Amino acid sequence: MATGGASPGWRGFLPREAFDTLLRALEAAGYECIGPRVEDGAILYRGLSAGSDLPQGVEEAQAPGHYRLQHTDTPRCFAWAVGPQAIKPHLFTPREALWETERDADGRLTFRPVEPGPRPLAIIGVRACDLAALALQDQHFLRAGNADPYYAHRREGLFLVAVNCTHPAATCFCVSTGDGPQAGDDCDLALDELDEGYAVRAASSKGETIVQQLPLQALTEAQQAQIGREREAARSAQQRTMPAGNLRDHLFNAWEHPRWAQVAERCLSCGNCTSVCPTCFCHQQVDVPTLDGGNATHYREWDSCFTQNHSYIHGITLRPDTRSRYRQWLTHKLGSWHDQYGRSGCVGCGRCITWCPVGIDITEEVSALLAEAGK
Amino acid sequence: MNASIQVPWQAEVVSRVQETPSVFTLGLRLDDPAAPAPYRFAPGQFNMLYLYGVGEVPISVVSDPEHDDEIQHTVRAVGRVTHGLAALHPGDQLGLRGPFGRGWPLEAAVGRDLLLVTGGLGCAPVVSVINYAMQRRERFGRLGIVQGVKHMDDLIWRERYEAWAGQPDTQVQLAADVAGSGWNWHVGLVTDLFDRLGMPLDQALVMLCGPEPMMIAAIRRLLELGVEAESVWLSMERNMQCAVGLCGHCQYGKDFLCRQGPVFNYPDIRDRLGVKGF
What we know:
The complex is a heterodimer of chains A (375) and B (278). With 375 residues, chain A is α+β, with helices and mostly antiparallel strands. Chain A is built from 13 helices and 15 strands. In chain A, the strands form four sheets. A seven-stranded mixed beta sheet of chain A has the order 1-11-10-9-8-2-3, with helices on both faces. Chain A has a four-stranded antiparallel beta sheet with strand order 7-6-13-12, with no helix packed on it. In chain A, strands 4-5 form a two-stranded antiparallel ribbon. In chain B, the strands form three sheets. In chain B, strands 10-9-8-7-11-12-15 form a seven-stranded mixed beta sheet, sandwiched between helices. Chain B has a six-stranded antiparallel beta sheet with strand order 4-3-6-1-2-5. Chain B is globular, with a radius of gyration of 18 Å. The model of chain B has no long low-confidence stretch (mean pLDDT 92). Chain A: This is Sulfite reductase subunit A. Chain A: Residues 258-288, 337-365 form the 4Fe-4S ferredoxin-type domain.
């Protein structure tokens, strides 16, 4: 959660040319560094070996159903808001082997859990919205007494370097959900980017250990003032809003609203929104046997409530049409999540708007549903 | 890493009974050294059964919780996994993990009259309670057993129902929408049967399982007959894949069926029950 007017607590200024010292310190502490890179025309979180791997000068244009990178003269590396994915695929992986089965010649079975490899990750350049989403995924996958061992393993080793967002996209609305654009203390380091480098704040003891190894300079008053102005600009630049508060009752009261059928006429039921959503957690299980019949691997893979199989039970598909699937997604994320996780499942990142092939805008749909539902 | 809850144990088929052309019962014995001994579950809970190379299905346990040499599952062959399970025979191996979910409120049922209502083929979770109560008859008051099917041929365990009907303080009523010769029970709906039981229902604890429209109609009639809403419990069904509240398929409002269910107290789900698309 963003801390708003709290004391910034900066420890100093890391010149841009010294950025690699951060990577080296993290590597020395045993982390594999990943961060934003340009790949396939998008900003994706991939292996990072030097500051020169970062998307310097890259800005982005996002709109419903639209995402384009633009190369500019800015010396900045974080002059963009969010790519299609950030933290989620590195903890809750798109495909995870859960167990292997060995079948001998007599048909006897032996089960072996698949252990996720030791791979402590440092993710550089996460946004406040992604941290809010991570807190929700933690709630889901690390439930007390019943934590998912695969997620927990990766989460335990995670080091998070947040970079406060200064360039919100036209699709962003994290201010209205209360999740950004400024990172709070649910990370290890938090940076504010300026043209010449980064203001650095340690948000955890792990972060403190790393900060002590950086060649920090004093942060000038002018730099601090500049950061303050940019933070405020990032807040006021956002054009979209999600209605505040718990929308559960409003949405369930709108269960038979004609808007569901209208949005279903545009929705392709493709599942892009659920794939890019940093809080969606649905997954299916599949069993993949080898051709010789001697082994099978049991995987879990990302699933979507927009698929036909998602609501299948013994010959019946409970949500047979796009209308009921879109309604399921929205009423769960913005409604039942309040009961299950104590807040909405939307963190205002706007990815579902950008990556929807037909540009369906969740904020617009919610407004329409609430307007006529009497909110 | 403790992945045990998400990884099956080896189990062996020790018995197989063909109940109807599409329904069969598999008796399983855990033979995995890592499996708990004895295996304990509560009636109404379910296991995930794994068929090699195909996948898993959630199946409720029908055997007695204290009868641990054979864990029985009654299955209808309807999908990929269940058709494969139908081809298993004694000696074959499969995977089992469980038990999962919340079972029937059997502690609260002690000393009370019980009404057990089932419809269609979804009767296994309730039949486990009937068996349980029959084995511990002194713990409960009167026992009412009501079962409805579409076609008389869909009824499995007719002999058992007829045997239960002969037990003291036990009333059995069966109904089929469509019946031919040889059917000496009611022709019509489950909801017609409550008046025929000849036992007062206002103090009874009710457990239902079956298609949602049947359960909704039955509950409506039972409330008219004076049953308290808080005394009604029902077993729900949704797609289940992980069984540990993670995969999202069985999300039902604020609940995941595999964790908070599959057995629910009626007032807790009254608002959602029967809402299409939920």
